[in-house]
Amino acid sequence: MKKTVVLILLVLSAQGYSQFAKSMFSKDPIINLENWQKQRLYFGYYLGFNSFDFKFDYKEVTEDIQVKKTTGFNVGVVADLRLQEYINLRFEPGLYYTKRDLHFSGVGNSENDYLREVNSTYIHFPLLLKFSALRTGNIRPYLTGGLSTTLNLSSNSKSKDDNFEGTFRTKSWSSAYEIGFGIDIFSEYFIFSPSIRGMFGITDELIRDNPGQASPWTDNIDSMKSRAILINFTFH
């Protein structure tokens, strides 16, 4: 499945790059979809990749928890509302999948003790402002930023088991702010928009282990917040 998604994105990226090259190096480019972004409201969809991490803050100075990141994937839809010529309001709900392995140094002697796999399936709800530059030929760069809230379908938040039973728990809902940039490339039939964003969590996601005995996994953690790099390929 991942190989198929990668192949599709590579083909679409190559097509987008071809349009980009023509727009950049042609003396008199044909202006594609000249009035498309003058619409009040339009829609699209995106596919992409992500790399999620955790930022830990500790109550006492100690050896850091090591996070092994993997590359996940994103898929979603876009609703774009034109506020004025250079500013748009965008809603980009999507499904994000990622996996992180946490290594707790000094906890036990086996993987069952010191290793926790955190598989996350997110329903992501970002509300963003898009600030576009002047269009040059068939390209238009932009900056974007805003807030997002996320529902983690794999949080284990309702589980009564904790790390002593091998279950690492996180909260179902979290919030973050996002900033990034991208470029609109106007082809003959659609707009191709590659973009990259940073996502920075602002709420603590950790559910501490049950009281009653000292926990080497969660007692020293003051906060645990997600952060991520999101790469999306959007089509309008």
Automatic annotation (TrEMBL):
Residues 39-205 form the Outer membrane protein beta-barrel domain. Keywords: Signal. Pfam families: OMP_b-brl_2. It comes from the Bacteria. Residues 1-21 form the signal peptide. InterPro entries: Beta-barrel_OMP_2, OMP/PagP_B-barrel. This is PorT protein. The lineage of its organism: Bacteria, Pseudomonadati, Bacteroidota, Flavobacteriia, Flavobacteriales.
